[in-house]
């Protein structure tokens, strides 16, 4: 028998073939294109060729459409599970972004599913059905395939507490050590579907990121014998490799590709050979069946995106992302102004996220706001010390390196996953980086209200909830330092700001300098 493990991951709500930059945009990705590829890959379905489709998480959040459904048309939320049914998904995994709109909404998204959601390392104090299955066992022609579902254990570090009340995210390696031996007794083939990635280079085994537990795919394969195939996600990489002889896939993001692991079994139901691959979907036409489900709500959302909000006096478009991070930018300054107006603080920080942030055109619509501020972030006000602030700025300063006198991005923020969103720019303080100095010693000026910040000085700062919880390796920021949370999404705060300030002037900030 030939088993084809077909996987999607990190679709992030890009259901129709568009990036939403304009109403007529046509993008080479989307779940609708994925659906056509899956249809082709599952066309042969017999006792000799057995296709198994798995969605590996981060499915219901991340695009303007996901925001529109969650905030304005929750009656459309079952669309996600209906589309998964159309793709013949046989197991679903929770990604970290599945929790961004709360558990009631997540339950609604999955309300039409014909497949189990697997949550081996998620313990639920309330014993909800949604999190009750650690694994599933599928059987055909006497062959049994077990699928164990795991979610990155770092969810609790990022998510707002009320969104995951009662949930506990256990260590994925310890969980796999408990379950894989049992599954080996129950099934012929054991598959782990993990919404997490590889923390080590698959060829050299050298660490490729901080070993903080966010990604533990390499550890799973090094420490847990008996895994026949590993499906990964979360890092938005396209991977088709073998690690310790085990095939591993990761199919990128936004439905740009499909992962497939082919396992050839012997007559004794043992894995004889395996082959991982990533299949691009750009050449596939969008599935008419999928688009028939997507179009009604997508068309409403396109109308909403064209809603005018306000006007920019000056230039708030981001023409060079590295330059904006190096010298500050009117768009960054504007986002920080929105944050400070919403919270009443006079220090705020924001990231430019990744390099697809366009900024705002002169005539601002909801489309520009949603395309520039793509995360459903909420704000938190945190009480910190001057020492905390300096440590955070040193973390920011490590984003840059010098090569032959030229400023480059530190590879730590580029590989194995693009993480430009870890770098923040601050308003309300005056600060200077000296890139000729070693990491940890680069902040050479830090003033607040015209006076140097002292280590024990008490300050309040506005951050998005991800950063306020320490996300991005900012240990100086913690949940127990948060003194106030705002329940409103940043995109709504931006729209509200334009309602109060119909004309906004783009200002080039001068509070931040870099020497090199």
User: Which percent bin holds the helix content?
Assistant: 25-40%
CATH architecture of the largest domain: 4-Layer Sandwich
Please identify which CATH superfamily of the largest domain we are dealing with.
Metallo-dependent phosphatases
Q: State the domain count.
A: 2
Number of strands: 30
Rg of Cα set: 23 Å
- What's the CATH C level of the largest domain? Alpha Beta
Mean pLDDT score: 96
Could you tell me the strand content as a percent range?
A: 25-35%
Regions with pLDDT < 50 over 5+ consecutive residues?
none
Biggest β-sheet description:
6 strands, mixed
Distance between the termini: 61 Å
What assembly state would you assign to the polypeptide chains in this entry?
Answer: single chain
Total helix count? Answer: 14
**Which geometry do the CA atoms define?**
globular
The spatial strand order of the largest sheet comes to 4-3-2-1-13-14
Structural class: alpha/beta
Family: Belongs to the 5'-nucleotidase family.
Protein name: Bifunctional metallophosphatase/5'-nucleotidase
Domain Calcineurin-like phosphoesterase: 5-237
InterPro entries: 5'-Nucleotdase_C (IPR008334), 5'-Nucleotdase_C_sf (IPR036907), 5_nucleotidase/apyrase (IPR006179), Calcineurin-like_PHP (IPR004843), Metallo-depent_PP-like (IPR029052)
Structural topology:
Elements: E1 2-8, H1 31-41, E2 49-55, H2 64-72, H3 79-86, E3 89-93, H4 103-109, E4 117-118, E5 122-124, E6 135-140, E7 143-151, H5 155-158, E8 167-169, H6 172-186, E9 189-195, H7 217-223, E10 229-231, E11 238-243, E12 246-251, E13 257-265, E14 271-280, H8 288-305, E15 308-313, E16 316-317, H9 321-327, H10 330-343, E17 348-351, E18 359-360, E19 363-365, H11 366-372, E20 379-385, H12 386-397, E21 400-403, E22 406-409, E23 424-427, E24 430-434, E25 443-448, E26 451-452, E27 458-464, H13 465-468, E28 482-485, H14 490-500, E29 503-505, E30 512-515
Protein name: Bifunctional metallophosphatase/5'-nucleotidase
Pfam family, one: 5_nucleotid_C
Domain Calcineurin-like phosphoesterase: 5-237
């Amino acid at each position: 028998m030939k088993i084809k493990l077909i996987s999607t991951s990190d679709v992030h709500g890009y259901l129709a073939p568009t990036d939403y930059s304009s109403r007529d945009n046509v993008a080479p990705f989307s779940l609708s294109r994925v659906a056509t590829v899956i249809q082709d890959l599952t066309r042969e379905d017999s006792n000799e060729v057995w296709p198994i489709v798995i969605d590996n998480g981060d499915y219901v959040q991340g695009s303007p459409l996901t925001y529109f459904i969650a905030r304005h048309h929750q009656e459309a939320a079952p669309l996600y599970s209906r589309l998964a049914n159309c793709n013949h998904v046989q197991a679903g995994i929770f990604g970290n972004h599945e929790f961004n709109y709360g558990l009631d909404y997540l339950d609604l998204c999955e309300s039409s599913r014909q497949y189990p959601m697997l949550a081996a390392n998620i313990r639920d104090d309330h014993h909800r059905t949604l999190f009750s299955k650690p694994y599933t066992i599928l059987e055909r022609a006497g062959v049994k395939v077990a699928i164990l579902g795991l979610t990155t254990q770092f969810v609790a570090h990022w998510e707002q507490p009320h969104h995951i009340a009662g949930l506990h995210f256990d260590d994925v390696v310890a969980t796999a050590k408990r379950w894989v031996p049992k599954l080996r007794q129950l099934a012929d083939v054991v598959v782990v579907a993990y919404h997490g990635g590889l923390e080590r280079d698959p060829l050299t085994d050298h660490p490729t990121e901080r070993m903080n537990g966010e990604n533990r795919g390499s550890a799973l394969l090094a420490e847990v014998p008996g895994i026949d195939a590993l499906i990964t996600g979360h890092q938005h990489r396209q991977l088709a490799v073998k690690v310790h002889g085990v095939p591993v896939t990761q199919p990128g993001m936004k439905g740009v590709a499909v992962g497939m692991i082919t396992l050839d079994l012997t007559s004794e139901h043992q894995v004889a050979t395996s082959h991982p691959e990533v299949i691009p979907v750009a050449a596939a036409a969008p599935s008419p069946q999928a688009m028939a489900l997507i179009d009604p709500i997508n068309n409403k959302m396109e109308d909403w995106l064209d809603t005018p909000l306000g006007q920019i006096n000056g230039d708030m478009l981001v023409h060079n992302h590295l330059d904006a991070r190096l010298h500050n930018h009117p768009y960054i300054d504007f986002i920080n102004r929105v944050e400070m107006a919403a919270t009443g603080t006079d220090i705020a920080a924001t990231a430019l996220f990744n390099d697809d942030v366009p900024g705002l055109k002169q005539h601002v619509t909801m489309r520009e706001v949603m395309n520039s501020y793509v995360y459903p972030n909420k704000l938190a006000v945190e009480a910190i010390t001057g020492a905390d602030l300096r440590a955070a700025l040193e973390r920011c300063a490590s984003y840059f390196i010098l090569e032959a006198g030229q400023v480059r991005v530190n590879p730590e923020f580029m590989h194995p996953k693009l993480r430009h969103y870890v770098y923040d720019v601050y308003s309300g303080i005056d600060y200077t980086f000296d890139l000729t100095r070693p990491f940890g010693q680069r902040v050479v000026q830090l003033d607040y209200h015209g006076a140097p910040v002292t280590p024990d000085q008490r300050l309040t700062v506005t951050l998005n909830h991800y950063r306020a919880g320490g996300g991005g390796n900012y240990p100086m920021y913690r949940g127990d330092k948060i003194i106030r949370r705002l329940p409103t999404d940043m995109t709504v705060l931006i729209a509200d700001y334009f309602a109060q300030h119909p004309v906004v002037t783009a200002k080039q900030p001068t509070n931040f300098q870099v020497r090199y």
